[in-house]
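Support request, please re-run this one:
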Amino acid sequence: MFLAMNTSDPNTTDTSRSFGFRTVREEERQGLVNDVFSKVAERYDLMNDLMSGGLHRLWKSDFVSMLNPPKGASAFRLLDVAGGTGDIAMRTLGAGGPNTSAVICDISPEMLDVGRRRVADAGLSDRITLIEGNAETLPFDDKSFDAYTISFGIRNVTHIDVALNEAFRVLKTGGHFLCLEFSEVQVPILDRIYDFHSFEVIPRLGKLTAGDAQPYQYLVESIRKFPKQEAFAQMIRDAGFQNVSYRNLTGGVAAIHSGWKI
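Re-run finished. Output below.
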């Protein structure tokens, strides 16, 4: 009988990562993700409209309602990670009081360029700061923020656990972590309809509207590779957060995850 010999080094760590349905070297992944967002930055809201059927606007309203920034004179400092276009930060300032402020941290300079224009057009440059930075190595001191939000961004992070640890680090005691992300559809029939929309419709619409289907193909594939609701909730707990919960939106097409630093 022939026995195959295992020639792999047991001490070698597999550093491959998923990029959609592709497997790439760990050191390649961030550059590939950056390339996607450099291509879609000017059409980012259109991309979210295509991927959610326009529902992302309602989901974001729910998201900011859950954040519940103080409407009085209390100071409230938000860190919005991967929030380059400024949507969540501006919604938060609109919902909060006069001493609500936000820092947007995004790794994509193209997304930040769009955000700076929008923030300036809204007359909010004195209350919203935009900084280029990586969610895995945030350029902020410990216990600097009252809340941390990330919307449709965490599935694009190479090391999600590291990003969650960073979120915990920069939040003050009593700080709120909120994440809005596409998730697993948990309603029969709707799951098949959404799969068809994701893989057959979205890339074609992306090619028609933006001239390139590839970024949209990656984005829909990345949703399927992202941890399901309960698995991601456990990752948030593992980072040190308490009172962790999630709420499905539109049958699980997206979910809002919440945790507190206590």
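The two ends are 60 Å apart (CA to CA). The chain has one domain: 28-197+225-260.
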